[in-house]
Amino acid sequence: MKKIIKIVAVGILFLSTNCGIKETEFNKQKWNDQTDGFYENRKNMVKDLLKNHLTKGMKYSQLTELIGEPENYANLKDNTVAYRIMENYGWNIDPIETKILKIELTKDSLVKKYKIEHWKN
Q: What is the DSSP string of 36-50?
């Protein structure tokens, strides 16, 4: 009986650790792939992008070569660009959750700092 309990416990532990977001290495083509207007791969790649590819001091031209042209957001500060990571509508017409990568540039168009903004309703 104890052996069965141990096997079940190990199985549950294994399943619970393998659920969730599967992180993958950054890939420019997959980063920009869209399905019905959504970037399905970005949420899995953003950690690797920030850790290994995006650097402070990078030129704007290098940034757009790396991850493409930024999206237009009307509410951004000057010298800030943004890339949508994920947007979840659930069963609603309005988003219930968004993640956006915001990148602030210097006056010389160099990457100054970056952050992920996560909003959830």
A: TTB-SSHHHHHHHHH
> What is the torsional sign of CA 58, 24, 81, 120?
negative
Q: In what side-by-side order are the strands of the sheet with 80-88?
A: 80-88, 97-105, 111-120
Taking the C-alpha atoms of residue 79 and residue 31, their distance in angstroms, rounded to an integer, is: 23
Containing H/E element for 17?
A: helix 2-17
Please tell me the pTM assigned to this model. Answer: 0.77
Give 19-37 pLDDT, tens digit per residue: 556 889 999 999 999 988 8
The token duo for 44 is: 């899995």
Q: Torsion-angle region of residue 36: left (phi > 0), alpha (psi -120 to 50) or beta? A: left
